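Weekly sync notes, structure subgroup
Attendees: PM, AL, DS (notes)

Item 1: joint prediction request from the bench team. They want all two components modeled as one assembly rather than separately. Inputs as received:
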Amino acid sequence: MDINAYIESGILELYVAGKLSEKENQEVYELMQKHPQILQEVLEIEAAVVKLTASVSPHAIDFDSFRDKIDDTKVVDLQPKKPNWISYTGWAASILLAGGLLWTLGKKNTLEEQLQIVETQKQYLEIQIEDARENLANTKNLLESIRDKNIIAVPLGGQGEFASSYAKVYWNKADNTIYLDAEGLPNAPEGKVWQVWSLTLNPLTPTSLGTIDNFNTDDNKIFPIANANESQAFGITLEPEGGSDSPTMEQLYTLGVVPTTP
Amino acid sequence: MVDIQHLIIRFKDKDQSAFEELYTMYGESIHGVVFNIVKDSAIADELMQDVFIKAWHKSGTYSSKKGRFFTWILNIARNAAIDKVRSKSYKQEKQNLDADFFVDIIKSNENLNSRTDAIGIKKFVSRLGEKCKEVIELLYFKGFTQKEASQTMQTPIGTIKTRNRNCIKQLRDMVL
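Output from the run, pasted for the record:
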């Protein structure tokens, strides 16, 4: 490009006056970087205009007279540091609050979990209480049955090599039921079952009252059994599973005679 | 003639000593431009300080790619002064403004006598043709655009540019 023609066009004077478009300003700036001659021209135009405009000023103003104002503005800049403490305090409070909320939330969750556990325990206890009540009721029934004045108590002693075994029969003739307390018997071994017999003595005739299939799993080992016989004695034998038609005498654990009514 | 690039960088970094140097270089010019518009010494003092304080705070927005620093602050000054002149308080205070151009102010400026370039300036002003006075007044002091100046002076827009070039050339010959 023709640098001289560009300079002579007067565009640089307008540049210093600030009367060019943004695009033209950019253009002049770039040309100044490339061509020292253009830069020099701009600097001289500027210097001349600066001198001319300065000569209009009626009096000089010392920079010191408003250095304070810049310092003032610095002080003003510094002053917000006081309110900053408020904002710091605010932030600190917010963080503490947030922390507190989180802690409370954590606490709440823990408490809810604990509450859940307690609730479960409570339900479990309720079930236990229910069971206990039921047990108590059953036991009461049992006790009442046994205490009934019509009850005949028949102790069954251990026989032969099973001397340590024992049992008791409480016989309520009125309702044709015996309650067998078999706590003194061991658990029936695998494949075997206890069988209860009603006996008449002269002649010795055994009548099966049935097998106790749930013996091993029963807690109180008291079994109500129907008995409509005119029993004179009761015996318990260990028989193969399913029971036998007649008692296996070698496996007679306990035997007891019904006392004759006075 | 040394460019002021290094000063501008320090100025943008809020270096107060750089700002003071820039003030020393351009403070009086800005004061002159503002005074030429408001025609009141006290108001001009106040405005000029406002302009430099504003420039100090806005230093981050200035970029040398957009124009000269002098041009940037000149623009801030003209806008501030014109705003002031248009304000209600100013209009109430100043009913009868003298219509002096910068040349008249320079001619009567006694303060100017103490300056080293006073002779050159006064010579320039006294020899300056009417057309030069007007175009410099409008473009540099009043901030008119080329188009606005051409309308005011009833001169073709292309002529404004070359005339201005010649007028500034005369100024350079006498003051530089």
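Discussion: Chain B has ten helices and no strands.
Action: AL to compare against the crosslinking data before next sync.
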